[in-house]
TrEMBL record, chains A, B:
UniProt name for this protein: Tyrosine--tRNA ligase
InterPro entries cross-referenced by the UniProt entry: aa-tRNA-synth_Ic (IPR002305), Rossmann-like_a/b/a_fold (IPR014729), S4_RNA-bd_sf (IPR036986), SYY-like_C (IPR054608), Tyr-tRNA-ligase (IPR002307), Tyr-tRNA-ligase_bac-type (IPR024088)
Segments passing through the bilayer: none
A Pfam family of this chain: tRNA-synt_1b
UniProt key word Protein biosynthesis: yes
SUPFAM superfamilies attached to this UniProt entry: Alpha-L RNA-binding motif, Nucleotidylyl transferase
PROSITE patterns membership: S4 (PS50889)
GO cellular component, one term: cytosol
EC number, as in UniProt: 6.1.1.1
UniProt source species: Caldilineaceae bacterium SB0664_bin_27
Family: Belongs to the class-I aminoacyl-tRNA synthetase family.
Catalytically driven reaction(s): tRNA(Tyr) + L-tyrosine + ATP = L-tyrosyl-tRNA(Tyr) + AMP + diphosphate + H(+)
Molecular functions (GO terms): ATP binding; RNA binding; tyrosine-tRNA ligase activity
Amino acid sequence: MPEFPPVDEQMAILMRGVEFGDDQTRTNMEAELRLRIEESRESGRPMRVYCGFDPTSSDLHLGHTVPLRKLRQFQELGHTVIFLIGTFTGTIGDPSDKESARTQQSLEEAMDNARGFTQQAHRVLDREKTVIDYNHRWLGELDFGGVIRLASHFTVQQFLARDNFSNRHAKGEPIWLHEFFYALMQGYDAIMLDTDVQIGGTDQLFNLMAGRTLMSARGMRPQVVLTFPILVGTDGHMRMSKSTGNHIGIDEAPGVIFTKVVNLPDHTFQNFSELVTRWSQEEIDGMVAQMDSGELEPQAAKRALAKEIVSIFHGEKRAEQAAVDAVRMHEGAAPSDAPQFRLSEEMNLLELMSASGLVRSKGEARRLIQQGGVRLNGEAVSDGVLTLVEPNGGESILQVGKKRFLRVVSTE
Amino acid sequence: MPEFPPVDEQMAILMRGVEFGDDQTRTNMEAELRLRIEESRESGRPMRVYCGFDPTSSDLHLGHTVPLRKLRQFQELGHTVIFLIGTFTGTIGDPSDKESARTQQSLEEAMDNARGFTQQAHRVLDREKTVIDYNHRWLGELDFGGVIRLASHFTVQQFLARDNFSNRHAKGEPIWLHEFFYALMQGYDAIMLDTDVQIGGTDQLFNLMAGRTLMSARGMRPQVVLTFPILVGTDGHMRMSKSTGNHIGIDEAPGVIFTKVVNLPDHTFQNFSELVTRWSQEEIDGMVAQMDSGELEPQAAKRALAKEIVSIFHGEKRAEQAAVDAVRMHEGAAPSDAPQFRLSEEMNLLELMSASGLVRSKGEARRLIQQGGVRLNGEAVSDGVLTLVEPNGGESILQVGKKRFLRVVSTE
């Protein structure tokens, strides 16, 4: 029979970071979780814990890692973790995290994205201990009668009272009927997975609670739900999301992650530190206090944050390199992971800049050159149209503005 | 190739009694119907016309006969009529006709009711020419993905703008999510039946229009919709419905139908005359004018109406008998179709009255006797508790108030 750590030890780890809108829900959920942990210790049965992830892109970003790290804690305490990929829910899109309807996705696209998702999730989860499942397996099999039975436990008013829908309703923006189905699906997932605990962001509370409603209606014991704060995106305000474009992908190059973190608005330091780093609450509180008193420069704090985050996903060594590169880049030298462009014949500079993706168009290249914003091997380029780059068997460094670099390499 | 009557002749018959909330819809539908009729004449292809009926009870009532008579007209003009039984929609219930959610029904109950329904529909429709279909055939097969695709063409706001839902929403009464599914189902029926025309009550306009929306979304030509006024029930205000209890069943005894019609509120005379009788508009207008001027007693008008309605469903002869019986009943004699109670042993009068269903309880029987409202063979009964009715091989007439009669027959 497996041995689980003492109840209080598990509670301290699992409840860390939990956030609810009201104290009553917190009190109830805390009591229910404690009871389940006690029962699990007595029976030797691990708890079944899940979190769903809709594969709307093939890449996980830092926002996904918040629940993933909590799942990892459950794993380390000996419980069973189900990484549920929303291959069916992803085809509708969750309206929770945004104020407008999302485009529907095909099952094939969802399955394609699911592959990259799973691989990346294993950077946080224990590969040997993670159950991976796909909700199209049961949601795709549900018939109209089944959908009706799920829907009959909810009123339209309950949906309209949710923040995201009530805001859109007040603004007179269309709410498509199928957007109401998302919560039903998540609730049905909980039934089919027969879960003890479901975790998610605070904006998921309604969907998680729908699982409790439906489980009760089926005579099942309702799952415990635990919600966690939302990680903001690089804009510093909206939820991090690929579709908003404010994301930091965990598979992005170390230099890219480093730069994005350093460029975050200062006020996001605490949110990122608490949700993404391995730092203790005391360390974080200390740094925030130092920033408030002026002892610690926000820029220095964010460099430390950037190094920590790169280190989590790419290791200590690459984090060091990214920090050094950032300094070089700031001084005008190309970072070690700047993109390369292989040149096999003479090329007009405008064409080269456009073809390599350094600029969006030849027009933009011409304008930047005229403004003196383009450097070739450290020298400002003044005559854009006539300058030719000749293959020379070596490497030229092309720089646009302060941060955009290209290594031009001859293939001869 | 079948020959269809001239377009104008068909239009005059089919548009009679059509009612829309706004003139624009009427103009559009009239133009579309004319075009379909022209095409039908040119190609020799009959139009496909349908109306759905939810088998919420095993009996049709006068309200059902309004669209049935319109379907009959389509049949007589040579078109194909589909009598669609809502064996699936009936399991949810249409929220259109009422201001609260309906209890869900099982498919078995729906199929049971469908049998009686079909038989009774043939009193109005041409049995040889009517296609009977059941919508559980396709709605029961639809999967969650299919439901989502249907729902994605409608907004929550469109539903909330409907009278019945907006009233309930304003009153703070719960609207269950699955109630919104009804319109999707009707729309899907139209797709699967590939209809030219759907007919229904004016309160069905939203559901019928949902069919147009979904057909257009599928690249199909949207069906023509024709709506007709709603027949009120015996209360004179609410839609006639078995669940409200204000219905007149077409399978009820002639005397019962006759009495229910004579007891209708006076103001319903025109609604019933226009929607249920075979009378011409001129005849009806004439009678209404005579009632207004005092030349025609409302009671006499309603007796004529009652005779006409009984005659439609039970024939001329039984209508005559019902009229005679009504007069006798008014004078205190038992009508020929008064219920019988077979008595095989001595019975206390209070028990007899209660067991036969003449009153709801022995308490009520006792109270009525004390008030002098009970007669046995024409004599007022004064001593309720002690009086015994003895089997005598003959028949005793028991009368409560003016209209309730029971023939007590000895079985010896």
